[in-house]
């Protein structure tokens, strides 16, 4: 019987435990949304944002001493800073001794800043901005134009004031996008009512204590109650009652009377200071939130592109045709025009090839070599297998499967892109900011002479360009013994980056060159051992105040020192990925359009007036594009 009794008691206990477990899960499911509503999730946000809106909570809690609130707030901020730094360290890049070992493991192009030190106003212990590591500030260098420069990461620190002048330095191209898409403030009357209510509440306690002011105290109290009743039923201007202007006038009159009689303003000052703090915290919160969402928007693959990638990959493996055809003899013919690009974006690569072929006088002479990674190889392979580019030949290569003598396994690195913000100083005050994006070769580019050992000349294109004219003239170009033919940006000089060039000698007056459109003499490259020079520069120890993120910038410019042939500006026009003010006539006449910057033409955040030049080379009748709503 004892055994029988115990056998029946055990399931009952299990049922009670399960019931308690279910109740706990229900309780947690109710508390979790509440925690998000209260903003408690800001403390463990994985992206590294520290929302300063909570810093004013201690100022408005009743019964909390001001000194205790200050110390509690500092403890909370320090704890949050340590937690953010821990997350950043866990998500940061690997700082190995050999920079060539793990360099460029990030899937997105790194973007750094060249900004004046006087503008950044960075302070020790300041929080890092959304989703990027805390920047290192480096003393700036003078130059002939009076500009000063230094390099930081994509955004500055929280110490920078939220103003139009400093916004672009702190949040990059987000501020350019925000200015172009600024909306008029809505529900202005509701916001005005809230301000009046807060001011009335600030004055009421002081007025209520004054002798002989019972009528004014009653008037303030009545107006406060009326406003509170309004906000219980209205949250937008459309919800407000018809005679709201009359109520506003009554409240303003009561506040004016209170201002005239109140003698002790300490309490009022504290309350109004709280209003200022709350407003600044709210503005800072929304700025950070918007900048963070913008970064997600420019760095995330659109849903339609993900759909296209998946469909093409599935079709590759389901296809009954022999997609892996033998190599076309064109691929190794040095007498043809060979174009090379690195890409993980099938549509971007397709637009580059389609626009180049459509403007070619003889497409039969064109050969395209696309380097991608293992993940995107099958989608790329199937797309270019079923697509038609007139008589041009297209080869898709998985760079991770390429084997070179005495070389480690290759990985795909896209061109490195840097944001450069420059302005002069007038009486130690900043003048108008000038922002540009420059892109240089990645680590993968320096294997091209070994991969194409049978070729003498190639043209390297980035996957964010559109070709508008025939490029055949580049193949008859006399580069005067130089290795790299590129368009230069003479608004920036190499001397402005002298602190990041190390101890090597270089011409400080040299203009900065860009990737996007580059004519490469592979014979001269091998003779000058550009790859060996680049590898040596990448392994050189950096100064303590120089970030490793600047290595590709430094190594690329020094590797091609005295080996650059400047192309005419008409060959390529850059800035279409960040500059809303590019001249329309220049866009029409340029041979190549370069969408350097964050606002790529395939993103919804792309600049609308320039996106049409890119979208016209998409096949609107392609079934895969239609099924994935790419053209919508």
UniProtKB/TrEMBL annotation:
PANTHER family for the chain: GALACTURONOSYLTRANSFERASE 4-RELATED, GALACTURONOSYLTRANSFERASE 7-RELATED
Keyword Cytoplasm: no
Protein name: Hexosyltransferase
Subcellular localization, as worded in the UniProt entry: Golgi apparatus membrane
Lineage: superkingdom: Eukaryota
EC number: 2.4.1.-
GO molecular function: polygalacturonate 4-alpha-galacturonosyltransferase activity
Pathway(s) served: Glycan metabolism; pectin biosynthesis
KW Cell wall biogenesis/degradation (keyword) present: yes
UniProt family annotation: Belongs to the glycosyltransferase 8 family.
One GO process term, biological-process aspect: cell wall organization
Segments of this protein annotated with the region Disordered: 119-147
Class of enzymatic activity (EC top level): transferase
Gene Ontology terms: cellular component: Golgi membrane
InterPro entries linked to this entry: GAUT (IPR029993), Glyco_trans_8 (IPR002495), Nucleotide-diphossugar_trans (IPR029044)
Coarse class of the protein's main subcellular location: Golgi
Record keywords: Cell wall biogenesis/degradation, Glycosyltransferase, Golgi apparatus, Transferase
Membrane topology: Single-pass type II membrane protein
Pfam families, sorted: GAUT_1 (PF25557), Glyco_transf_8 (PF01501)
């Amino acid at each position: 019987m004892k055994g029988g009794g115990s056998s029946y008691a055990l399931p009952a206990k299990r049922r009670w435990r399960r019931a308690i477990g279910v109740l706990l899960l229900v309780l947690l499911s109710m508390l979790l949304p509440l925690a998000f509503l209260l903003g408690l999730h800001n403390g463990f946000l994985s992206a590294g944002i520290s929302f300063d809106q909570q810093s004013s909570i201690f100022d408005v809690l009743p019964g909390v001493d001001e000194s205790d609130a200050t110390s509690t707030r500092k403890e909370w901020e320090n704890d949050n800073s340590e937690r953010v730094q821990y997350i950043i360290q866990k998500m940061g890049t690997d700082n190995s001794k050999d920079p060539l070992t793990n360099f460029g493991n990030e899937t997105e192009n790194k973007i750094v800043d060249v900004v004046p030190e006087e503008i950044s106003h960075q302070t020790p212990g300041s929080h890092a901005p959304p989703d990027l590591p805390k920047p290192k500030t480096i003393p700036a260098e003078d130059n002939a134009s009076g500009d000063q420069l230094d390099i930081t990461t994509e955004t500055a620190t929280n110490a920078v004031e939220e103003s139009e002048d400093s916004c672009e330095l702190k949040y990059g191209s987000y501020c350019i996008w925000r200015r172009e898409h600024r909306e008029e403030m809505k529900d202005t009357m509701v916001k005005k009512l809230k301000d009046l209510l807060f001011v009335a509440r600030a004055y009421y306690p002081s007025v209520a204590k004054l002798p002989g002011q019972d009528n004014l105290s009653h008037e303030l109290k009545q107006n406060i109650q009326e406003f509170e009743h309004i906000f219980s039923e209205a949250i937008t201007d459309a919800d407000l009652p018809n005679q709201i202007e009359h109520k506003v006038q009554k409240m303003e009159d009561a506040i004016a009377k209170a201002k005239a009689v109140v003698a002790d303003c300490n309490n009022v000052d504290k309350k109004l200071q709280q209003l200022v703090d709350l407003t600044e915290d709210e503005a800072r919160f929304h700025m950070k939130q918007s900048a963070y969402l913008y970064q997600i928007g420019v760095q995330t693959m659109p849903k339609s592109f993900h759909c296209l990638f998946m469909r093409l990959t599935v079709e590759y493996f389901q296809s009954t045709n022999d997609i892996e055809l033998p190599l076309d003899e064109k691929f190794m013919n040095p007498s043809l025009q060979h174009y090379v690009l690195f890409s993980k974006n099938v549509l971007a690569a397709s637009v580059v090839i389609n626009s180049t072929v459509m403007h070619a006088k003889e497409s039969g002479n064109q050969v395209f070599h696309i380097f991608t990674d293992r993940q995107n190889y099958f989608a790329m392979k199937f797309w270019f297998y079923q697509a038609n580019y007139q008589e041009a030949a297209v080869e898709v290569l998985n760079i991770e499967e390429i084997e070179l003598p005495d070389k480690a396994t290759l990985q795909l690195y896209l061109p490195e892109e840097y944001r450069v913000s420059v302005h002069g100083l007038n009486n130690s005050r900043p003048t108008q900011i000038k922002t540009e994006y420059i892109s240089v070769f990645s680590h993968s580019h320096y294997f091209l002479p070994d991969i194409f050992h049978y070729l003498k000349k190639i043209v390297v294109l980035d996957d964010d360009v559109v070709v508008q004219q025939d490029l055949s003239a580049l193949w008859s170009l006399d580069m005067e013994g130089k290795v790299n033919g590129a368009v230069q940006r003479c608004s920036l000089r190499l001397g402005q980056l002298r602190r990041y060039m190390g101890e090597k000698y270089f011409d400080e007056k040299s203009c900065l060159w860009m990737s996007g459109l580059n004519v490469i003499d592979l014979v001269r490259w091998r003779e000058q051992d550009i790859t060996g020079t680049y590898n040596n520069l990448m392994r050189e120890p950096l100064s303590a105040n120089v970030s490793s993120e600047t290595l590709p910038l430094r190594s690329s410019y020094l590797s091609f020192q005295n080996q650059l042939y400047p192309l005419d500006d008409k060959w390529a026009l850059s800035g279409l990925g960040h500059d809303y003010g590019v001249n329309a006539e220049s866009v029409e006449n340029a041979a190549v359009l370069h969408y350097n910057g964050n606002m790529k033409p395939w993103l919804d955040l792309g600049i609308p007036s320039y996106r049409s030049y890119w979208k016209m080379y998409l096949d609107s009748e392609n079934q895969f594009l239609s099924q994935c709503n790419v053209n919508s």
